[in-house]
Design brief:
With about 375 residues, the protein is of the alpha/beta class. It has 13 helices and twelve strands. It has a seven-stranded mixed sheet, with helices on both faces. A three-stranded antiparallel sheet has the order 9-12-11. The chain binds pyridoxal-5'-phosphate.
Length: about 375
């Protein structure tokens, strides 16, 4: 075949986190021992009662096409969860169950973007936002948040808005920086979004993995933002269900209608079996969520003091899942050398946008023993670099 392939897809970057994982896999295949702190996949098993519910559903014949929006029982469980935990009053018509939070983001963008529409991305930002915007015909516009605080400044936000701006993507608790939004930042987002009539896509997938009794502000619960917020969440991180591919989107009715049309044509629905597990996750005991967050907290406590070493500076993150320390020199070279010399995989910060340059992201999704091994490797690496 000589016919050209899709420019739109060809122009999209490969995921940097997946590239690091790939290199780690190659080294392992060569017999090297590699500890990966690059993955966003919790190292816990899905709680047994969730697996049991899915098993029973399969045995009971729940193996056919479900409604495209999601099963009524799961939609109701999500509506109740939103009321109970987030003080969000959503109707069932606003909720769409998706195969993963990632697809919920894709649907949100697909439902609102026309070619050339701009979407503001607050950087450092999760690697997939830019690509998803581009795949939906939009143009990502990065706003660099300055290290180490990464605070959203109303002036900088306002300066990025043009006549083509359609939406702002916000991620709190944040991947990769670990921050959660301060009230003044929510004020800034609300002021700019209302003034310029923008949608706010709020990615709250890490809402439960936070420390120190902090609470994440849910933007859909804010009366200033409720009518323009597209809320993305899911089961992957809170319930260690990454492989189940299950998430949800909550959006104002007109957006939800288009998102549902897109889902039904492109994907049909989430898996019926995964949805049975999702009902058990939301309606069942929630101790498992707290236990996993507590385990991440313990790992952070173990890891953070090492980051106060000269040259590896890291403010304590609120998000339990990862740390984002500054490293000496070029972050890409640092990550490559660390992997090749010490067998420790981390993601270079520049993968998360220019504002992440000079940092690396290390997730805490590894056992304490693996973390200790990784930190020893990092210490040795820092030593060979002269601190
Ligand atoms: N949003 C952020 C910030 C993430 O880090 C991830 C996964 O790593 C997702 C969304 C999507 O998660 P999933 O598609 O597994 O629900």
């Amino acid at each position: 075949m000589t016919r050209p392939l899709s420019d739109r897809v060809g122009g999209v970057r490969e995921s940097a986190t997946m590239a690091v994982e790939e290199l780690a896999r190659t080294l392992r295949a060569q017999g090297r021992e590699v500890v990966s702190l690059a993955s966003g996949d919790p190292d816990f098993a899905t709680p047994a009662h969730i697996i049991e519910a899915a098993h029973q559903a399969m045995l009971a014949g729940d193996t056919h096409y479900p409604p495209s929006r999601g099963t009524p029982r799961l939609i109701e469980a999500i509506v109740q969860k939103l009321r109970r935990e987030n003080a969000v009053e959503a109707s069932a018509s606003q909720v769409i169950v998706t195969p993963g939070g990632k697809w919920a983001l894709f649907l949100a963008l697909g439902a609102i973007l026309n070619p050339g529409d701009e979407v503001i991305v607050l950087e450092p930002a999760w690697v997939s936002y830019r690509s998803m915007i581009e795949l939906n015909g939009g143009t990502p516009v990065g706003v660099a948040l300055p290290a180490p605080g990464y605070r959203i400044d109303e002036g900088a936000l306002r300066a990025a808005v043009t006549a083509r701006t359609k939406a702002i993507i916000v991620c709190s608790p944040n991947n990769p920086t670990g921050r959660i939004l301060e009230p003044s930042e929510v004020d800034a987002i609300a002021a700019v979004a209302r003034e310029h009539d923008l949608f706010v896509i709020s990615d709250e997938i890490y809402e439960h993995l936070i420390f120190d009794g902090r609470r994440n502000p849910c933007l859909a619960a804010d009366p200033r933002l409720a009518d323009r917020t597209l809320l993305v969440n899911g089961f992957s991180k809170a319930y260690a269900m990454t492989g189940w591919r299950l998430g949800w989107l909550v959006a104002p009715d007109p957006v939800a209608r288009l998102a549902l049309r897109l889902q039904s044509q492109a994907m049909t629905s989430a898996s019926s079996v995964a949805m049975a597990g999702g009902i058990a996750a939301l309606n069942g005991p929630q101790e498992c969520v707290g236990e996993m967050a507590a385990a991440y907290a313990e790992r952070r406590a173990m890891q953070l003091p090492r980051h106060t070493a000269p040259g590896l500076a890291c403010p304590a993150p609120a998000r339990a899942f990862s740390v984002f320390p500054r490293v000496p020199g070029d972050d890409v070279a640092f990550a490559r050398d660390l992997l090749e010399r010490e067998g420790v995989a981390v993601v270079p910060g520049s993968a998360f946008g220019e504002a992440g340059r000079g940092h690396v992201r290390m997730t805490l999704a590894a056992s304490s023993a693996h973390l200790a091994r990784a930190m020893d490797g990092i210490d040795r690496h820092m030593g060979t670099r002269g601190g």
